[in-house]
Amino acid sequence: MPDITQIAAVDFKKGSKFSTCVKQSLPNIAEVQKVAGIYVDANDNMSLNGGYYDSVCIMTC
């Protein structure tokens, strides 16, 4: 079963938003990277479609 890679929520009454990315416990394979656009570089930085995102390890959530 794949890991969750993004968690997001919106409070419609207040208009506030929350979004964070979660690093997968298994490394991405090349085909998955091409389809999803999610990469984790050698320094453990996550990028999604070319933009870097704050992320957390799924094991610490």
Descriptive report:
The protein is mainly β and 61 residues long. It has one domain. It contains one helix and six strands, in the order ββαββββ. Strands 1-2-6 form a three-stranded mixed sheet, with no helix packed on it. A three-stranded antiparallel sheet has the order 3-4-5. β4 and β5 form a beta hairpin.
Write a brief structural summary:
The radius of gyration is 13 Å and the shape is elongated.
Mean pLDDT reading: 78
Give me the strand/helix succession.
Answer: EEHEEEE
In whole angstroms, the N-to-C terminal distance is 17 Å
Q: How many beta-strand segments?
A: 6
Number of domains: 1
Index terms:
three-stranded antiparallel β-sheet; 11% helix; 61 residues; mainly beta; three-stranded mixed β-sheet
Explain the layout of strands and helices.
Blueprint: E1 6-11, E2 16-23, H1 30-36, E3 38-40, E4 46-48, E5 51-53, E6 55-57
Parallel strand pairs: 2-6
Antiparallel strand pairs: 1-2, 3-4, 4-5
